[in-house]
Amino acid sequence: MMHFLRHALCRTASHRPRLRRAACLISVWPVLLMLIANPAMAASQRLVAIGDAAVAYVQANHPWQGLHVRLQPPVLDERLSLMACAEPLRALLPVGGRIAQRTSIAVSCPGNAGWTVHVSVIAEAQADVLVARRAIARHDSIRPDDVIRARRDITRLPYGYVQSLPTERALQAKMGIAQGAVITPSMTQAADVIRRGDLVAIELSDTRMAISMRGVALANAAAGELVTVKNSQSGRTVQGEAIASGRVRVQ
């Protein structure tokens, strides 16, 4: 084909001087190269379109809206041969999939070409999370000066994270937490307001009167939890709600 095009474009110069023929050949080569390169250029553009479709889907559906998110488009093999798609590409999350640090997206051509390619989009989402300022022992209360806020890529935190300490209730460590560790929900629990052996006030309340008597807690309990206490006068055990340090309410 190259020989035919070269001959067709330069045949008018066959009766002219050699210099004119050389100039003709030089002018023809860019045309020939463009004809050869166009299929490769079209294929490259199709690969870029696939990556753009996958990134656009993740951008619209990721769970980190409002944060600084960076998405890395997929790298596709340039040898991948796909028919041109006459319709807009369709990107979907595979059944059972979820958007995470690395997400597989199915990009397909809904037209006559009828192909589907699975590609991976890598995400990074930066947020401020709580990190242990010092080592925290199991069952120790977690106070504001025990933690600091630090910027982390939360896509790499599969067990979750905590962004602030609750103001309505105290937290304690459910397990030992190392210095510098990101605080996760599974590491914390509501702090006990009553501990086994504590002297408590047992408050009996009804619609007519409130009665208080002394007792001893037989277990630990956080605010709102049920705890068993022993009445110091009668020796009987009752179960009530821990409402504050040293206070148990029995209905």
UniProtKB/TrEMBL annotation:
SAF domain residues: 127-189
Localisation: Periplasm
Entry's Gene Ontology cellular component terms: periplasmic space
Top-level taxon: Bacteria
Its biological purpose: Involved in the assembly process of the P-ring formation. It may associate with FlgF on the rod constituting a structure essential for the P-ring assembly or may act as a modulator protein for the P-ring assembly.
Family in the record: Belongs to the FlgA family.
Keyword Iron belongs to the record: no
Protein name: Flagella basal body P-ring formation protein FlgA
Signal among keywords: yes
GO BP terms in the entry: bacterial-type flagellum assembly
InterPro entries registered for this protein in UniProt: Flagellar_FlgA, FlgA_N, SAF, SAF_FlgA
Keywords: Cell projection, Cilium, Flagellum, Periplasm, Signal
